[in-house]
Amino acid sequence: MASALGKVVVAVDDVIDNLDLLKRILTPLGYSFYGCSDGQSLLSLLPLVQPDLILLDVEMPVLNGFDLCRTLRQRRETAHTPVLFVTGRNSHADLQHAIALGGNDFVVKPYDPIKLRARIAHWIQRAGSMQPGAPPNAVQVKPASSPESKIEAAHPSLLQNLVREIDRMADPVVPAEPATAAQRPTEQR
Predict the structure, then answer these.
(1) Which of 38, 48, 65, 111 is the most buried (most CB within 10 A)?
(2) For 8-170, which CATH superfamily applies?
């Protein structure tokens, strides 16, 4: 796992208790944490702080998380900063919208703090190896001589895998018809 020391995480959530919880989860690991209660506060903070990762709620007044992500991707200084949506919304459409806007991951509240820490560490480490000019969700491939390159090329981002899994689970499952007495296996005695 990548070292958290010196890494900056900024969270945007209009519920102060959610920001407090995130701070309690991340600061003991060595992350510098900044909480913003709205999108405008984040945009005002950016000239002062360069985040290594941004956590966004979706449902916020004035500027929702989706619109804020769109704005972040249009700004040079945050175009490639990992963005993780941390939200109570959990529909497939929300997940797809987050991906389309350049979000890197989608965590549904309530979340497991251990899993959230792992995802944050993953995206911060991955951001450090991003190629300049690469889109935020681009799969980063090491030079062909690297044994890891074949593995990374074969495994798209976590978010893309999550979407595929949700698509697979969304396929209608037809329940099996109850077996008739003639079809039931006889009990061995």
Answers:
(1) 65
(2) Response regulator (3.40.50.2300)
